[in-house]
Specification:
heterodimer; A: OB fold (Dihydrolipoamide Acetyltransferase, E2P); 5-stranded antiparallel β-sheet; 3 helices; 5 strands; elongated; B: about 90 residues; mainly alpha
Chain lengths: ~210, ~90
């Protein structure tokens, strides 16, 4: 039973952590090398890794998606998609996809004369599932070693932890004051019933042995 | 447009549920505190009137109005995000 309980808890919290890791913003310091558009077939479950288009094209199964190709300072390639999130989840309220595409094209630089930019993004790059993080904004970086502090995540996760703690403490207090006494009462009732039963059985046995003897 | 309306409705319903819950919780806490104060000070007289008066004071208090932040904070956060993502 303890294994099931822990397995369940670990699964739930892992899924929640993965969800946060996917949704919360992250910074990359990159050098943009190119941009391209590609037609995407979005007709299977992997749809969840792409944005929901505006209402006119919601029925369309295929559509053009913009991509931003770049290199990180350590030499790893990273490709972003560039899509509106609009009023949909996740709540980035990004409407300026075309502007961002222009900024990305403006920031294209060569290996010899690199221009480092900070790309704010959310999402995962998976080569197996062909998923791409969605770029939110592009700002100039101080250099390839620039490490922007993710203040939003620090504040958000602290507040979230505080919220969970507050709920947990209140739930424990509620259980101690309202549920545990009731359970104990029920338990006491069981014990009392058990004692009465065994006493009666003892009397019965004595009576039986008395008959025999 | 459909997405905007859907988000607005979700926010309206969700925030109203939170607002209602926080309001009830806060008022019940105030009531419990008033009862406790009554017992601690050993006050005499009409306990009901004492509690009713305390709750009426609470209804006009700043603390109750602060619960409106349940609406104000998320909506201003959304406005701020829209500005930061699209216009700066």
């Amino acid at each position: 039973m303890a294994y099931i309980k822990w397995g369940f808890l670990i699964t739930v919290w892992s899924v929640f952590a993965a969800f946060l890791h996917y949704t919360l913003p992250q910074y990359d310091v990159v050098r943009i090398v190119s941009t391209y558009e590609e037609r995407q077939e979005l007709d299977n479950w992997k749809r969840i890794f792409w944005s929901t288009p505006d209402s006119q094209s919601q029925a369309a199964v295929t559509r053009d998606v913009q991509f931003i190709q770049s290199f990180q300072a350590n030499g790893d390639a990273i490709v972003y998609r560039n899509e509106d999130t609009g009023w949909h989840w996740p709540p980035y309220f990004k409407f300026d996809t075309a502007n961002l595409y222009t900024e990305a094209n403006d920031a294209i630089s060569t290996k010899d004369d690199p221009e480092w930019v900070v790309v704010l993004h959310y999402g995962w790059r998976s080569v197996f599932l062909s998923t791409f993080p969605n770029a939110i904004s592009i700002t100039p970086a101080a250099g390839p070693d620039d490490k922007p502090v993710n203040w939003f995540n620090i504040i958000f996760l602290t507040l979230l932890a505080a919220l969970f703690w507050a709920i947990y403490v209140r739930w424990r207090r509620f259980r101690r004051n309202r549920i545990d006494p009731v359970l104990e009462e029920v338990e006491d009732g069981f014990y009392a019933a058990g004692d009465a039963l065994s006493e009666r059985r003892g009397r019965l046995r004595r009576w039986l042995s008395g008959l025999k003897g | 447009m459909v997405a905007f309306i859907r988000l607005s409705l979700l926010l309206l319903v969700g925030l109203t549920v939170i607002y209602g819950g926080v309001s009830l919780y806060s008022r019940e806490r105030r009531r419990a505190k008033l009862k406790q104060r009554w017992a601690e000070r050993g006050l005499t007289g009409d306990r009901r009137t004492f509690i009713q008066r305390g709750l009426k004071q609470y209804d006009h208090s700043l603390r109750r109005r602060l619960i409106l932040l349940v609406y104000i904070l998320p909506l201003s956060a959304i406005a701020l995000v829209i500005y930061m993502v699209n216009f700066s």
